[in-house]
Amino acid sequence: MAKTVLIVEDEPSMQRALKSKLEHGGYDVKAAADGEEAVAILKTVVPDLVLLDLIMPKIDGISVLRLMKDDDRLRPVPVVILTNLSSGDKVAEAMALGTFDFLVKANYSLDDVLKKVSERIGAP
After folding, report:
1. Are 56 and 8 in contact (CB under 8 A)?
2. Backbone angles phi and psi of 20, in degrees to 5
3. For residue 113, what is the DSSP state?
4. All structural domains of the chain with their residue ranges
5. Alpha helix stretches (DSSP H) within 2-105
6. Are 54 and 60 in contact (CB under 8 A)?
7. Using one digit for the tens of pLDDT, what is the confidence trace for 69-86?
8. What is the pTM of this model?
9. Which of 34, 51, 75, 117 makes a 20 to 30 Å CA pair with 43?
10. Which of 112, 102, 87 is nearest to 17 (CA)?
């Protein structure tokens, strides 16, 4: 059974590119366009990993991360933060909440994301 990755990314082109790359890599992918959608998905699905943008409409990534850390089902799920260079303070806050991986959007390729996912949860 394929491992599930939840992508929480509000930029449609980035979300599509990530989803396509991970699906071609063999992962089952769920996608949310904002934190509110992510929370709704997380009520029914426990993914193997979450790729989480920090700055989003409705509910931001830090709030989603806090919700996950407060939920026994979701606490062990690894989270990889997707961030812009300007959100360094948010990255520090995310790290304090137990996130150990992050990718700066301007500096990574889709292959980097696939590699990071594989490192964290293994091949699909």
Report:
1. yes
2. -60, -45
3. H
4. 4-119
5. 12-24, 35-42, 61-69, 88-96
6. yes
7. 999 999 999 999 887 755
8. 0.91
9. 117
10. 112
C-alpha–C-alpha distance, residues 22 and 18, integer Å? 6
The whole-angstrom distance between residue 115's C-alpha and the CA centroid of its chain comes to 14
Residues 54, 91: Cα–Cα separation, whole Å: 8
Task: Residue 4: name the closest of 24, 25, 23, 27 by CA.
Answer: 27
Q: Which two tokens stand for residue 116?
A: 């990071």
**Model confidence at 67, in pLDDT bands (50, 70, 90)?**
very high
Going by C-alpha positions, the residue among 123, 121, 124 that lies closest to residue 51 is 121
The CATH class that applies to domain 4-119 reads alpha beta
Contact assessment for residue 55 and residue 84, using Cβ atoms and an 8 Å cutoff: yes
